[in-house]
# Entry
Amino acid sequence: MAEEQNPTAPPAPAAPTATATPTPAAPPPIYDEAGNELVELTIDGQLIRVPKGTPIYDAITGMGKIIPAMCYHYTFAPFGSCGICLVEVEGKKAPVRSCSSNVAPGMVVRTDTPAIFQARKKGVEKHLSTHPLDCPVCDADGRCELQDMSFAFGVSEVKNVKQKGIPEDRRSLVLDFNMNRCILCAQCINICKDVQQVDALQFHKKDGFTHVVAKGDTALYCEFCGDCLSICPVGAITNKFAKYLYKPWQLVSTATTCGYCADGCEMIVDAKEQEVIRVRSPFSWKSKWGTKEDTLGGHGGICVKGRFGFQHINSAERLMQPLLRHGSGWAPVSWWEATDLVAGRLAEIKAQHGPEAIAGLVSARLTNEELYLFQKFMRTVIGTNQFDGTARYGQSNFTQALQAALGVSRLMNSYEELTLANAILVIGSDLTEANPITALRLKEAMRYYKAKVIVVNPVKTKMAALATHHLAIRPGSEGLFLQGLVRTLLTNNLADPAVEQANPALLETLRSATASWTDEALARATGIEASRFNEIAGLLAAGPRTILLCGEGLLKQPGGYANALTLIEAASLCGALSRPGGGVMALQEENNEQGLIDFGAAPEWLPGPAPITDPTSKLRASALWQAPVPATPGATLTQILERARQGAIKALYIIGENPIETLPSSMRAAEALERVEVLICQEVFMTETAKRAHVILPACTAAEKSGTFTNHEGELRPVARALEPKGESRPDWEIFEEIGMKMAPEFACGSVEELQQEIGRLVPGFPKAPPPRRLEGPPHFAAAHVESVTRRYTQPAVSSLPEHALTLQLIPILYHSGKLSLRADGLTTIYPKGRLAISPQDGERIGAATGAVVRLTAAEGSRPPVNVEVEVQPAVPAGLCLFPEHFNEPPVRELASVSIDKTTGVPYIKRGAVTMQLVTPAPIAPVSANGDGALASAEAAASGETA
Amino acid sequence: MLRTEEMMLNMGPQHPATHGVLKMILDLEGERIVKATPVLGYLHRGVEKLAEHGTYHQFIPHTDRLDYVCAMYNNFAYVRAVEKLLGLTVPPRAEYLRTIVAETQRIIGHLFWLGTQALDIGAMTVFFYTFRDREILLDWFDELCGARLTTSWYRIGGVERDFTPELIAKLAKFMDEFQGKIDECNTLLDKNRIWLARTKDIAVISAEDALSFGLSGPTLRGSGVDYDLRKYEPYGAYGDVEWSVPVGRNGDTYDRYWIRIEELRESCKIIKQCLAKLPDGPYLADAPTVVLPSKDKVFTTLESMILQFKLFTQGFKAPKGDIYCGTEAHKGELGFYIISDGGSHPYRLKIRAPSFIHLGAFDHMAKGYMIADIVTIFGTYDVVMGECDR
# Structure
């Protein structure tokens, strides 16, 4: 059965107040409490007051009435193209479009008369008269506003039927445009322009008809968020991947949380039996009624990864049953046999070599419940802290810095706070690529709430282009920039007095550490002039709602931990931490990195999160688990690999983590894994790491299990099971439970709900309420932190590279997430292979245009050179080249230099210095955007069809 | 001295004379019935529950399978109930078409009853005569709507398709000949000593008892109660034509037989008059959001396709409320009680099936008769278990 029609009633936007007394003929101006001028008018016999300048439509919906409209959506300004929202205004002969005319004093409006019904019906008939007769093959059939309207008005006879006969525009990679069905409501254009602020679509007159086309009538290549697809009230824009497959009522829809990044967006998975057919967003033409305030926390959209990156769930390459190494191949075994073997071998090794001979690595793509159960398994059943998770690649820097500086583990801001912030500093994060839905909050903050957004990035990213301020710092000088900011806040006396009062020692130390610095030295090292520092410091200190955002570009680059400390200092000094609505937060690339820390799946944390050194938390955990928390300090990712290489670790249990493909080969992860006696891999796919395992346990994806993820806001987002696990694969927690029970019977947990109850006893409120994410009062810095200042604040120095060497950075891109998305056809269609982004200057210097192949050689060390195709991007500054971290082919990641953070053990593997020579010049034919011929071939296919 | 005791005899559910599957537990004293307990539910299919999960249109085919001998009248009773819920008026031609087909169905029903009741009692010849005539009408149904038994010809707001001139001619010809055929069957029975002995004073029920058991149709009128919804709450075209309600005196099986024979003649009268007066005009109401669009337009115009699609996938929304609508089917009062919560399917749909109500009086009417009469008594209600168990 197709879905119900629109939601029952729109919420009141301006809360119009009904009054009983009629107004005199010439009403004096009325004002509300805030001093806005009000207009009094009558709608359907009811006298109401609304702010001056309100469209009649909003005044009506504010009363709780719904009048039909097809081109209206509350997320953007009324467009007035559909001609359905007609009302009768006394004194006007013809019906009036209520969305595009404003209220006037004394106006008398009627919304429900037979004449109006007929006028609206005529409007619907007009749309139907040019609409093709193809409901049976249309994807929107059953989810079509034109059908709904036609039925609601009982249209039974349409005259002057005229077909457009426009061929379908199939040039785009993921969307098809059928302009015969288009009703020209322009919602796709408006959402792209006003909400996404990408502005990729336009109206275009061609062959006597108006079309919706990509800007410049080319093949659409945009961010592919798919909001245009969602908002299309008819079937004019269709999804290539779900086209012609099923009708909406044949699919089972499940609302769950996206598993790509920590934006934690709600998405609706439409499945047919055991296959995901498509993914939808809660945002659609059906979610039409609301006010601007409703989008403070997000408009309900999802990004390209969520919408088009689901095919890995259906993949035939999924691991379907437990495998046991058998000589050079694999033998399928039963679950019983596999878990028996794993439990037996682990028990044996524990008995023989002690618990420290066993270690574990876990991915942050698991649910909170599973991460909790994993650490409980390691700590109680095995008896070791020797396990680590993928938060180690960066997020640990932030949480450990918070812990060291302020004694807290979580500081987060909600999306509402981001939208309403006055000043936002974005450093080391390319939001629109890594966290596109969070990026929308910043876009809205800028456009509608006039926030100042300061993007600090060597590259002129999309966000930098939209931002009010873009500081193109020298590559790698993020930390120094932040220190310079701290210095400026101090020298300009902008430091928050409350912070100064609470931490006199810190400020004193900071002042003395930077006293000898000169503006010139700082400008040389960072590329930012003193005047810019002053301006930014002024903006951030003025606030009052100031938020400092960082991401992988700060935390995953060398010095990430120190940089995080400086960021926290900067945030404190400008008052972000002591004023409501402000804050400092780190954006995570993997969906549950914060959850991994919150639920203790890292050696230094207990669930809560609480530092493992905290005796009370330790006592509480051991009381609940009825087992002591191991006293050993545990080990981080790199330490575990090192110990494995030395032969100290006999058994390694890896869940969803893939060190061989993630770490450069210089870290010798493969060697370490080959050394261990028992390598257990719990995986969804046969990764390079899994290929070396002795036992493979097939796990299922997030679409096949239930639980929670923790997003950037620190909120718990529900994960719901949309499918039964594929093949014999099982949710990770079930596997932990079975192995755990075979080693210690009391480990049984029963179900996800029971597990949640257990966690609720350590983390109060779970799974309803997240752990606290705010400071009480102004920040108080620890004494040890104050001591670290002198070590960190050294004279600004220009990091020098050999001549003509470039800084190489491995970056996340919009169309991929980790390695998982490479298995999603939707995303590999859009972005099939990694290309090196270089600046026009560097391109010109070596004679390489887009499409040319260059040889990259590491500036230091002896690593084999790598040939890679380049893409010249004007946004990239000279001296910098960027490569998407998701692609291991060509092996550009091998050129990154490796260092390991002394405090947090974070491996820095995303930056290096390279030199570049031209190998093959670019082909003659120009290749656009993400070329590789995908577009060219699509265009050829389209033109071939019309020919 | 011989030891005597009551005997309990199980009859059915697999028995050729149970008109479906009915089990009866008979307590016998010798050959005399002390107590007769019908055990129902062998043909239960959850039809009322099914109604809650489909649109109003989608339930029409389910009604075919209630009293599967007389699908047309079930369709009629159901669409009348929905139309009452919606407050929908049906065009005059549709009312006439509906009445004609409903009375044709009554003739089929009574012929079927007559044949099987006589067969049950032992008069086989009648069965062949009645089924001969029934076949002609079933073929006529086939020509009308493409099915002999599961007709689904009635639609909310009218009927599925109009009569063709051939259909009208065929029906008129049949009706001209039918009076003689009724006599033909009747000759075999009304002076037949066995028939008289086995029907007179068998299963007698007084007018008061019949009323308090809620009996209806020929079963009630046999006891002398002049009650016929067609006459006293006229619907369709019954108000426009001349006909009378035959009423019995004794309340026995013979009177009920006599009433049914007379009703055959009355039906014939009604049909002939309706055919003569058949008005022109549409056969479906003009209510695009309720009435299914005609098939020839569905694949040629967009608006009709959308209406068709919407009505079949989502259905129309009925106003909130509850209604009861009784219709005089040939077995008795067939009623539909519908509760609507304002949605596109019934919130609850209850069927008042005459067969079910009549079996409530079974013990009362069977008590004291001989075991050999049990089949007569059972047959006298014209029970069809498909309707009784639903």
About this structure: The mean pLDDT of chain B is 88. The CA atoms of residues 35 and 238 of chain B lie 41 Å apart.
